[in-house]
Design goal:
This protein has 82 residues and is an all-alpha fold. Helix content is 77%, strand content 0%. It has a domain at 29-82.
Length: 82
C-alpha cells in the first residue's frame, strides 16, 4: 500500500513540470501584455498629471489610444461618469 502511494506521488511530481511548461507560455504572454499596458498607463499619467476632470478625460483618451496602437484589450475608464 505504501509503495503504491509513493509511486503515485512520484508519478504526479514527474508529470507536473510538463503541465507547468504548457501553462508558462500563456502566462508569459499575459505578463508581457500587462507590462505594455502598464507602460501605456504611465505614459498617459506623465502626459496629463493633473486630477481635474478635463485632465482625467484626456488621460483616458491617451491611454485608450496607446492600448489600441498595441492591439491590447481596453481597461475601465479613469475619469468619473464615463
Amino acid at each position: 500500500m505504501l509503495r503504491r502511494l509513493a509511486f503515485a506521488a512520484f508519478a504526479a511530481t514527474a508529470l507536473l513540470p510538463a503541465a507547468a511548461h504548457a501553462a508558462t507560455a500563456q502566462g508569459n504572454l499575459m505578463m508581457k501584455r500587462w507590462g505594455v499596458s502598464d507602460k501605456c498607463a504611465q505614459l498617459a499619467q506623465r502626459q496629463f498629471p493633473d486630477y481635474t476632470a478635463e485632465a482625467l478625460a484626456k488621460r483616458d483618451q491617451a491611454f485608450k489610444n496607446c492600448l489600441n496602437s498595441q492591439n491590447l484589450p481596453p481597461r475601465e475608464p479613469i475619469a468619473p461618469g464615463e
